[in-house]
Amino acid sequence: MGTLRFGPMSCSVDGYVADADGNFDWAAPSDELHAFVNALVRDVRTFVMGRRMFDTMHVWDTWPAGKSAVEDEFAAFWREADKIVCSDSIIAVDAPRTTLEPRLTNARLAEIVAATDGVVEVSGPTTAAGPLRAGMVDEIHLFVGPVVVGGGLRALPDGAWLELALVDERRFPDGTVFLRYGRR
């Protein structure tokens, strides 16, 4: 039986993962922050994401080695993990260890988590909205960046009610703060 984690998601102080124009370039991690993310994803066995998140992350499937040690390390974790893309707007995915789940239900996600030995990470606020509202998520990992974007795509959905306990936190020199919450 696995655990279900939301994140790691970068968001603005006002709670958005992308601004009103869909930009999130303000969330690019420093090498120190990226190394920290690498440590967080070591235990991820399956990444579950929507099409937009997959479009962003797919670059790691063909990442050219040698750019930086921290990026090479993440690319290795990414390639070793299973990926599930949740989208009914595409008919196939062309990436190693990647399957398409056109309509991910909470029941199907629960089956995936139960069949996984390790962490299932659901990322992307749209894909994670149902599991968050249903109280299925065991942990939430947020990286709050020192920016206010004033609107856009929210990190957490309306209608979710979760009682959480702060499990860990860390500050980074660029002003980003990592917050790890578990269910109470």
Task: Describe the 3D structure.
There is one protein chain. The model has no long low-confidence stretch (mean pLDDT 95). This protein has one domain (3-156, 164-183): Dihydrofolate Reductase, subunit A, CATH 3.40.430. The chain is globular. The relative contact order is 0.27. Helices cover 26% and strands 32% of the residues. The strands form two sheets. The protein has an eight-stranded mixed beta sheet, with helices on both faces. A two-stranded antiparallel sheet has the order 2-8. The chain is α/β, with parallel strands linked by helices.
Major sheet description: 8 strands, mixed
Radius of gyration: 16 Å
- Helicity, in percent? 25-40%
Name the structural class. alpha/beta
Distance between the termini: 19 Å
Residue-averaged pLDDT, rounded? Answer: 95
Question: In the residues, how many domains can be counted?
Answer: 1
Give the second-level CATH assignment, the architecture: 3-Layer(aba) Sandwich
Strand arrangement within the widest β-sheet reads: 5-4-3-6-1-7-10-9
Order of helices and strands: EEHEHHEEHEHEEEE
Looking at the structure, the CATH topology is: Dihydrofolate Reductase, subunit A
Number of strands: 10
Proportion of residues in β-strands: 25-35%
Number of helices: 5
